[in-house]
């Protein structure tokens, strides 16, 4: 069944006219990214050229996807917008609130027992406002979207940073904060700075132990975690066409780890095959009619240096399998070079867990390649020396994999089959002994490996690699195992070697499923009642943030000066805190508890300038709020990288923080701060970060004249009475300044809906 086929056909009906108009205006051949962007302008047909990396542009996305953790806050906000129904096709997917512990059935039941209030809330809101609802256990949002909703040439936004996974089917799919999604749900335009373009030309063909995962692991090595910021990464070349659709999805998925706005591939035969085997012949037929507009112009790909802001070339035939980590997804090590590097850095060589799954690598092809390695272990009388866990990507994948005997292969190696959900990838893992914080190593096929991400243990060294390498390393039990050269000793004392993995793009019998987990909304949901108990610990109706009073912010105290990497995981942790994602006040008790304080280099310990004592960050901030004292958070480079967690913006806003002043922002987090009415600014001189002292007071001299492209002047008063005056830059345009003045973008939407 093809969802939203009328919407897709409508997109294709106008794409020819809009692409041709864009080509005339820009006066050069177009990349795929440019075609999709210009074809989705809010104002319709293109009429002007936009400057990459500078112009803010209003877009009209085709659809929205939300996962259960972020959907709570997004839908709580949408309920305030005064709209009877969502303006574009929208879905909610319950995949984040299921903890991996024992196995699929028991873990799913436990999630239903503990989070039923939230699931019922999401289901009722979905029914009321015309939203498609995917029940707990239906699958991981991005795999389900790829299987059911993604379509070539479309534009989608989603309340999860790995929405970009849909680039594997030729979309421009972008992770956003919930407030952005609310704008589009409410029929408003969605604003984005017109992205720069990074081209990745792929030649050759993958073989042996190398996989699509190694493409993005290599790109992460080249670009680092912030090298893609503000850009779309577009893959092209004969090598790109040789990669399966789900393999393309893997590559696009981890583009979030280099800060890219999104990543995408041009429509090709692999995408058509995927559409047809997932029951979307109508979409494939419609796409074929406008096929030339669903990939970059041949001239653009023939002379990429003229059409991309940066160009990377990778020969897939020469690409080696990689293992990236620990603690960051861009620290790359080719398999075979790990021994020396691990010893030098004192990384634990013994691997305790191998985990396969997440939205990055949980397709049928991924499972078959890993299962081919697992089957070899069985045939060669080997056992896994590390514990082994599997998260299928969707119920369709799980059902088909069970039917075809793949899960049985893993189970023969004592693998634990977890629920079709995110699980350990987002900290939803009840790992035995993690609370004791032992130094250890795990390998997984996930996308992120920040400290504490998987199990809450800061001493867990997590490494990212392909599913087949996870299987091989789990069997060997060693981080530096090289299946291409190293031998293993089996139960009979014989030395054996693993052979190259094999896989199947699709199941030979096709996909099948008994219950996909989808619940369609009623045609008219106006009579559906959404109930939130006043005493609920999990859900809380929102109170609008106060508008700006129009005055300069003065007498603001320093809450924390964050040192080094400060991701959204540090600002608003996941794991056990996920249960409070729908209750802003309760979840605010995790605000910045993972950030390292530059003074003392500890986490969750800051000086309270009211009492002079040291305390936890949220408790200290609540004192400032009670006293009516504004506060400032200071941060380092790429502040707010990681998940598109709007809670990381809403929590400090709720607790009374007025300003976030950093060296540089991650894109999504900067937007989230703006949406919530916060002042997010950057040091004009990065070295001014060093001027900030623990007892500082901040006065914003010229905020009353807040205007686009006009730096702000900040007076920093130190405890000894001395002062430093610095300049701070910002990227607010006129519309975003209106958000700030109104107190939030949502406040402005409500005002506009009433008028």
Core attributes:
30 strands, Aconitase, domain 4, 4 iron, 4 sulfur cluster binding, 25 helices, Aconitase, domain 3, iron, 17% strand, alpha/beta, seven-stranded mixed barrel, six-stranded mixed beta sheet, 3 domains, 755 residues
Structural description of this entry:
The chain is an alpha/beta fold. The chain has three domains: 5-318, Aconitase, domain 3 (2-Layer Sandwich); 322-496, Aconitase, domain 3; 556-754, Aconitase, domain 4 (Alpha-Beta Barrel), CATH 3.20.19. Helices cover 32% and strands 17% of the residues. It is built from 25 helices and 30 strands. The strands form eight sheets. A seven-stranded mixed barrel has the order 22-25-26-27-30-29-28. It has a six-stranded mixed beta sheet with strand order 6-5-2-3-4-21, with helices on both faces. The chain has a five-stranded parallel beta sheet with strand order 16-15-14-17-18, covered by helices on one side. Strand 25 (631-635), helix 22 and strand 26 (657-662) form a beta-alpha-beta unit. Helix 15 packs parallel to helix 18 (467-476) and helix 24 packs across helix 25 (745-754).
Rg from C-alpha positions?
25 Å
Total number of beta strands: 30
User: What percent strand?
Assistant: 15-25%
Principal-axis shape: globular
Q: List low-pLDDT spans.
A: none
Overall structural class, as computed from helix and strand content, comes to alpha/beta
- Total of DSSP H or I helical runs spanning 4+ residues: 25
CATH class of the largest domain: Alpha Beta
Overall number of structural domains: 3
How far is the N terminus from the C terminus?
A: 41 Å
What percent of the residues sit in helical stretches (DSSP H or I)?
A: 25-40%
Give me the CATH superfamily of the largest domain.
Aconitase, domain 3
Average pLDDT figure: 96
Strands side by side in the biggest sheet: 22-25-26-27-30-29-28
CATH architecture of the largest domain: 2-Layer Sandwich
Please give the largest β-sheet. 7 strands, mixed, barrel
**Could you please say which CATH topology of the largest domain applies here?**
Aconitase, domain 3
Protein name: Aconitate hydratase A
GO molecular function: 4 iron, 4 sulfur cluster binding; aconitate hydratase activity; metal ion binding
GO cellular component, one term: cytosol
EC number: 4.2.1.3
């Amino acid at each position: 069944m093809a969802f939203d086929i009328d919407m897709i056909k409508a997109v294709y009906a106008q794409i020819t006219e809009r692409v041709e108009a864009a080509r005339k205006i820009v006066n050069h051949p177009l990349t795929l990214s440019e075609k999709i962007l210009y074809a989705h302008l809010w104002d319709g047909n293109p009429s002007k050229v936009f400057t990459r990396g500078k112009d803010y542009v209003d877009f009209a996305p085709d659809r929205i996807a939300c996962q259960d953790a972020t959907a709570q806050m997004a839908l709580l906000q949408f309920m305030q917008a005064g709209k009877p129904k969502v303006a574009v096709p929208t879905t909610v997917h319950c995949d984040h609130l299921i903890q991996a512990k024992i196995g699929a059935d028991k873990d799913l039941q436990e999630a239903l027992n503990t989070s039923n209030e939230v699931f019922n809330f999401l289901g009722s809101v979905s029914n009321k406002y015309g939203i498609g609802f995917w029940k707990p256990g239906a699958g991981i949002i991005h795999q389900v979207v790829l299987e059911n909703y993604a379509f070539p040439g479309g534009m989608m936004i989603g309340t999860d940073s790995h929405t970009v996974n849909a680039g594997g089917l030729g979309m421009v799919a972008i992770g956003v904060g919930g407030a952005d999604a609310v704008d589009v749900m409410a029929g408003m335009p969605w604003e984005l700075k017109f992205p720069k373009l990074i081209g990745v030309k792929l030649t050759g063909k993958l073989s042996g132990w190398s996989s699509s995962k190694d493409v993005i692991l290599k790109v992460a090595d080249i670009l680092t975690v912030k090298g893609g910021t503000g850009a779309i990464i577009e893959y092209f070349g004969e090598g790109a066409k040789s990669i399966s659709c789900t393999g393309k999805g893997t590559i696009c998925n981890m583009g979030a780890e280099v800060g890219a706005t999104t990543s995408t591939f041009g429509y090709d035969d692999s995408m058509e095959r995927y559409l047809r085997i997932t029951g979307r012949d109508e979409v494939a037929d419609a796409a074929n009619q406008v096929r030339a507009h669903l990939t970059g112009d041949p001239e653009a790909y023939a002379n990429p240096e003229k059409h991309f802001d940066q160009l990377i070339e990778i020969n897939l035939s020469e690409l080696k399998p990689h293992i990236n980590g620990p603690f960051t997804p861009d620290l790359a090590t080719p398999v075979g070079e790990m021994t020396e590097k691990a010893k030098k850095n004192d990384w634990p060589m013994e691997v305790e867990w191998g985990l396969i799954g997440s939205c990055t690598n949980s397709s049928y092809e991924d499972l078959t390649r890993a299962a081919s390695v697992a089957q070899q272990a069985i045939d060669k009388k080997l056992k896994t020396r590390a514990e082994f866990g599997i998260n299928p990507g969707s119920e369709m994948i799980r059902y088909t994999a069970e039917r075809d005997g793949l899960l049985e292969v893993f189970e023969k190696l004592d693998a634990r089959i977890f629920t079709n959900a995110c699980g350990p990838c987002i900290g939803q893992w009840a790992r035995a002994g993690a609370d004791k914080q032992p130094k250890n190593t795990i390998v997984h096929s996930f996308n992120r490996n920040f400290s504490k991400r998987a199990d809450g243990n800061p001493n867990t060294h997590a490494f990212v690699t392909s599913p087949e390498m996870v299987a091989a390393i789990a069997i060997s039990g060693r981080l530096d195992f090289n299946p291409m050269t190293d031998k293993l000793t089996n139960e009979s004392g014989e030395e054996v070697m693993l052979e190259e993995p094999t896989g199947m793009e699709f199941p030979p019998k096709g996909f099948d499923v008994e219950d996909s987990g989808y619940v369609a909304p009623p045609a008219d949901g106006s009579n559906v009642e959404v109930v939130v108990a006043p005493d609920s610990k999990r859900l809380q109706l929102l109170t609008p943030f106060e508008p700006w009073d129009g005055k300069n912010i003065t007498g603001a105290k320093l809450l924390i000066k964050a040192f080094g990497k400060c991701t959204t995981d540090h600002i608003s942790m996941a794991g056990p805190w996920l249960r409070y994602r729908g209750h802003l006040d309760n979840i605010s008790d995790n605000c910045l508890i993972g950030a390292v304080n530059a003074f003392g280099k500890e986490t969750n310990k800051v000086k309270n300038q009211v009492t002079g004592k040291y305390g936890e960050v949220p408790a200290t901030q609540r004192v400032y709020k009670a006293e009516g004292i504004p506060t400032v958070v200071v941060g380092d480079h790429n502040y707010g990288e990681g998940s598109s967690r709007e809670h990381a913006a809403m929590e400090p806003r709720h607790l009374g923080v007025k300003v976030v002043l950093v060296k540089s922002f991650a894109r999504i987090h900067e937007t989230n701060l703006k949406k919530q009415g916060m002042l997010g600014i950057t040091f004009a001189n990065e070295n001014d970060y060093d001027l900030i002292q623990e007892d500082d007071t901040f006065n914003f001299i010229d905020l009353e004249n807040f205007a686009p492209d006009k730096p702000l002047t900040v007076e920093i008063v130190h405890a000894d009475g001395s002062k430093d005056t610095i300049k701070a830059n910002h990227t607010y345009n006129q519309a975003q300044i209106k958000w700030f003045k109104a107190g939030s973008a949502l406040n402005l939407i409500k005002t506009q809906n009433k008028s």
